[in-house]
């Protein structure tokens, strides 16, 4: 098929001839399906109305003129994005930026690597990290020397024609080069259900959940599914690969703690504890525990601390 150009419209046999020079001014859903679109004819300014099964609109990416003028007048460095340092500061140390408009300076890229624009990261996490930089400044601490680690997955959810949801939740690196293939050395676990649609979990070579896909009529909470991305797949049960439906499997009470908003941070704390060197003083407090026992204790402690949020989980009381 030939590539479509934004300045032209295309139709099928039996439909009105395509027109050029129309600017979309409004659109609304039609009861029962379809869309009613309103255009303005550039040559005359007259209004043109059309009904269609669906409407596709696009435009060239551009910077808002008023915003660009403000940045230019303030002499803020702009290179397709507002350039920031590791502490989210622009070239004016009193002006901070994050989100879709910002990117880290190229000087932080190492070994020929490429830093991802901040629109590849979860905006909520970016905001928290910027707030941390502001707090450090107020406390008189030295700004960080390298960009912070981003742990939160990015979620994209759209409603397709027919009210079918497509959801993609993944670690930030997966958005740099989107691909349907699992990561090298990894695997994909997928199920298809007439009632709950298609679901898939990608696991990388280290056994970490790197992405979650869903397509179906039942609406799935993207933020909830983001909770499992970045965690070891072992948290999701030994029988995950044989599950008839991934969504039904994950709805089990046994995994409710995994979907708690604080569990991912608890996991990262556990990893940091396990990777820390063990000295004699630490072992005198912790005892000679193996890694599995320590992780189990951390998870149990998490459930105890959040018992009011997780009433479906019963943890034996301490002796």
From TrEMBL:
Residues 148-238 form the CFAP61 dimerisation domain. InterPro entries: CFAP61, CFAP61_dimer, FAD/NAD-bd_sf. Pfam families: CFAP61_dimer (PF23150). This is CFAP61 dimerisation domain-containing protein.
